[in-house]
Amino acid sequence: MGRGVTSASPAATRRLGEGLARKLQAGDVLALTGPVGAGKTVFVQGLARGLQIPEGKVASPSFVLVREYQGRMGLFHADLFRLEGLPEARTVGLEEYYERDGVTVIEWANQVPGILPEEYLEIHFEVVDPRRRRLTLAAHGSRYENREF
Ligand SMILES: Nc1ncnc2c1ncn2[C@@H]1O[C@H](COP(=O)(O)OP(=O)(O)O)[C@@H](O)[C@H]1O
Ligand SMILES: [Mg+2]
Fold first, then answer.
1. CA-CA distance, 44 to 18, in Å (whole number)?
2. Given this model, what pLDDT does residue 123 score?
3. Which residue intervals of 5-145 are DSSP H helices?
4. What is the reported pTM?
5. What are the per-10-residue average pLDDT scores of the chain (149 residues)?
6. 37 secondary structure, DSSP code
7. Predicted local distance difference test score (pLDDT) of residue 117
8. Whose CA is nearest to atom 26 of ligand 1?
9. CATH placement of domain 4-143
């Protein structure tokens, strides 16, 4: 993926997720940021495919905070969009997922200050036009800084 890339279709965004998944290790935490409709959930579908999780399962975790999938390792998918300013935001318990045998992916991680671990990989999504999305990677901490994505 490099530091940044433009996707020209949902399928291309899925492929980017699939490619990234091959480079992920258990214990990795990804923060997906950017506006509604930018392609964060589409990207997570690609991650799932790359982790050999059966197709078609990944949807936005709208009514639960975290959905769990099992492939070559776990995928723990959270969406904090609705949590802005809510007191329960502090008790989501995401920390327990960080310790488990899998990858934790958090949409709208920036909605809840303090929810992210010290080290994480951020992928920021921007809408360029109706079909194109710009994805920018930022490594936070040495766990990610020294790896190629
Ligand atoms: N290049 C692209 N990558 C990802 N999604 C795209 C792209 N072009 C159009 N779309 C559309 O944008 C929407 C992205 O939705 P979603 O992944 O749920 O966004 P988010 O989770 O960021 O709110 C989908 O309807 C998808 O079909
Ligand atoms: Mg989403």
1. 9
2. 98
3. 10-21, 40-50, 95-98, 142-145
4. 0.94
5. 93 98 98 96 96 79 79 94 68 85 94 89 98 98 95
6. T
7. 94
8. 10
9. 3.40.50.300
Distance CA 41, CA 61 (A): 9
pLDDT score at 64: 65
Q: What secondary structure letter does DSSP report for 54?
A: P
Q: How far is the CA of 34 from the centre of ligand 1 (A)?
A: 11
Ligand nearest to the CA of 46: 1
Identify the pLDDT of residue 2.
Answer: 78
Cβ atoms of residues 31 and 110 within 8 Å: yes
Q: What is the best residue among 42, 45, 126, 131 to mutate for testing ligand 1's pocket, by most ligand atoms within 8 Å of CB?
A: 42
Q: Where are the domains of the chain?
A: 4-143
Amino acid present at 34 = G
Ligand with smallest separation from the Cα of 9: 1
For ligand 2, an ion, list residues with CB under 5 A. Answer: 40-41, 60, 107
For helices 10-21 and 40-50, angle between their N-to-C axes, nearest 10 degrees: 50
Compute how many other C-beta atoms are within 10 angstroms of the C-beta atom of residue 5. Answer: 15
Pairwise CA distance, residues 67 & 18, whole Å: 18
